[in-house]
Amino acid sequence: MAESHIDKRLAVIVAVDVIARNADLLSEILLRLPALSLIRFSLVCKLWCSIITSLQFRLSHCRTLAFSNALTPSGIYFYDCLTNLQKVESLPLSDNVTSLPPLPLLDPMALKKGDAIEVMQVKVMQSCNGLLMCVMKTKARNIKLGIVYNPANKEWCPLPSPYDKYYGNVYYNLIFDPSEPPYYKALCIKRLGSYWSDVEVSVYVPGSESWRLCCRFSPPYDMRFDSGVFWNGAIHWIGENSSIYFDANSEEVVRKDMPPRPQGQCREKIRYFGEWGGHLHLIQVQSLYAKKFNVLELDKNTWKWSVKYRVHLARLISAFPEMVQQTSSGTQYAFSILSVIRGEKEEDSVLLLTIPGKVIAYNLVLKTAEVVRELPGEIGDALRFNHVCAYQYTESLAPVPALKDLS
User: Fold this and answer.
1) For the segment 314-363, what is each residue's pLDDT rounded down to a tens digit?
2) Contact call for residues 61 and 67 (beta carbons, < 8 A)
3) Looking at the DSSP assignment, which residues form a beta bridge with residue 272?
4) Is 345 among the domain residues?
């Protein structure tokens, strides 16, 4: 019996050794592991490092996660979007993640390379399947340049300037579909004319020498191009009265109507617009005094908005009276929506929001609330409610090739 037990242990050791030395078999196993685990495993030996850091493996890993619906955000970065310098807070959302990677790129000194350019400000503008689109504002003529950044592997690349002349009034958006090889696409939207009546869209793909002018169109006056959301193969922008999207494949711009509002009601304000797990959500409110609102979802087939959840915060306000703020205009409720999070089960779906001093997960089905993080006094006070920006963190090995790597 003892010999049989020893033989089994030896067989296991031999099998492990065979797998560890077989590159093809090892690759198939590693493809199914999370990105951060792979980053750690790349330090095991030269063979593992060569496999995990290879471009082919990294692209295959992204596609594998995409096709298995495993590209779920594991955390959220959030900050006060009215401040010049971002003081970013982070919140892990997975039991397997204890903390999110820091974002040193947001420190202007991290981008200082000699005296060629003096950086004044760096801000996150969008999150897309593991990549962040950041905007760097320089002191020289208020120029805005785009930066693509992967916080998981700390790779980043500044985008080339889209215009020969300095131009500050531009917006950058990111298209990254891991199931479509090989890299991301970047969009640059430039306002034209003294009244910004027209815009032009340029596209940049890694490996290209420059941006390519794609189209021009006249958008609705209230369109927000600094808050694009990638969903269902397109970048979506939204205004109070209408929305438009840019199809990543056809490169066409399509205008869509907003959800109809009940007769007699005033124009609603957008409180949240974002994507989670393949679902595009919209929250509109009548005013800052509203404690009742609906969570809308856009159908992929009909492209129609419908009510997914109905929210009434009266019970939450009762439990957390610090949400009540008395102003010269009347009573307001201090909260900001970080995300609508869809669970694997419907009853696990929550509304993640900040209130003074806390981050709350409000269950959209059970109507219960849980404090998921305490915010220290100075942080809680610094966050200006209704002006908190939030961006998903998704573990990914997605490559962000430097310009020199593609030449």
Assistant:
1) 999 999 998 888 877 778 888 999 999 999 899 999 999 999 889 999 99
2) no
3) 283
4) yes
